[in-house]
C-alpha cells in the first residue's frame, strides 16, 4: 500500500471535486426526461424533494425551472457544495438539509419525490430500502409521485463502474475506479482512487447493492404505493434483464 494513499468516507473528501469528476453526467438531459415523465402521468408538482441530492445539481436545475425544491443528503460536505452553488446562482427557492434516506423526518409534505443517479443502490439492505420507501410515502401528499432510478444487476455484474480518465488531458482530477461484484450478496465494491493536482492521492471505497426488480415493486406496494411503471433508462421501454439503469414510477394513492 502506498504511504501517500489516504482513505476517506464516501462522498466526503471528494465533495469539493465531485462536480468536476461528474462533469460528463448530462444532468440537463436527466431533468428533460423527468419532464417527459411528469407529462406522461399528468403530474404538475410545485414542491419537490430531491432525495440523496449530492451537490444539488438536479435540485438546482429544478429550482431554476420554478419548482420549490428541498434537497436532502447524508453527506454534509456534499451539502456545503450544494448550498454554495445555490448562493452563486442566487436561487431562493431551494433548501438543503442533512437527512438519512432510511430515516426521513421532514416537517412538510411534497408533491413529488425524485432520487436519481443510482442513489438508492447505496442502501445495502432490504430493510433499509423498505424504510426509505416508507419515509418517502410519509412525506408525500396524497396523489404525489415518486420517481427514482436504480442500477440493474446487469450494470454491476459487468463491472461497468471500472473506469479511468487518464486519457482526458483536460481533467484536473484524475481517477481510477476498480469494481468487483459479489453475485451472492448482490453488492458491488468500487475502489475509487483520486489523484489531485497538488499530488495528493486518496481512496474512497463505495458499495452499491442491486435490489431484485420484483422486490423493489413489492416493497413499494408494501409501503402503500401504487406501482405504475419501470422503464429502461431515459425511455418508455419496459425494463428488462439487460437494463443497466431502471427508472421506477410510483404514486401515493
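Sequence proposed for the structure above (253 residues):
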Amino acid at each position: 500500500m502506498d504511504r501517500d494513499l489516504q482513505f476517506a468516507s464516501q462522498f466526503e473528501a471528494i465533495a469539493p471535486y465531485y462536480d468536476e469528476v461528474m462533469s460528463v453526467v448530462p444532468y440537463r438531459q436527466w431533468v428533460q426526461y423527468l419532464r417527459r415523465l411528469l407529462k406522461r402521468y399528468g403530474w404538475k408538482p410545485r414542491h419537490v424533494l430531491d432525495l440523496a441530492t449530492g451537490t444539488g445539481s438536479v435540485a438546482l436545475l429544478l429550482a431554476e425551472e420554478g419548482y420549490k425544491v428541498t434537497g436532502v443528503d447524508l453527506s454534509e460536505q456534499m451539502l456545503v457544495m450544494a448550498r454554495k452553488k445555490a448562493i452563486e446562482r442566487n436561487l431562493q427557492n431551494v433548501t438543503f438539509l442533512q437527512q438519512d434516506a432510511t430515516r426521513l423526518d421532514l416537517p412538510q409534505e411534497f408533491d413529488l419525490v425524485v432520487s436519481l443517479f443510482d442513489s438508492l443502490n447505496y442502501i445495502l439492505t432490504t430493510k433499509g430500502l423498505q424504510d426509505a420507501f416508507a419515509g418517502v410515502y410519509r412525506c408525500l401528499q396524497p396523489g404525489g409521485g415518486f420517481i427514482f432510478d436504480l442500477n440493474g444487476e446487469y450494470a454491476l455484474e459487468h463491472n461497468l463502474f471500472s473506469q479511468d480518465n487518464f486519457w482526458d488531458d483536460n481533467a484536473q482530477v484524475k481517477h481510477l475506479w476498480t469494481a468487483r461484484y459479489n453475485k451472492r450478496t448482490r453488492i458491488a465494491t468500487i475502489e475509487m482512487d483520486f489523484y489531485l493536482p497538488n499530488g495528493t492521492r486518496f481512496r474512497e471505497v463505495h458499495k452499491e447493492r442491486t435490489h431484485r426488480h420484483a422486490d423493489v415493486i413489492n416493497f413499494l406496494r408494501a409501503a402503500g404505493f401504487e406501482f405504475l411503471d419501470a422503464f429502461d433508462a431515459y425511455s418508455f421501454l419496459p425494463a428488462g434483464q439487460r437494463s443497466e439503469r431502471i427508472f421506477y414510477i410510483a404514486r401515493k394513492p
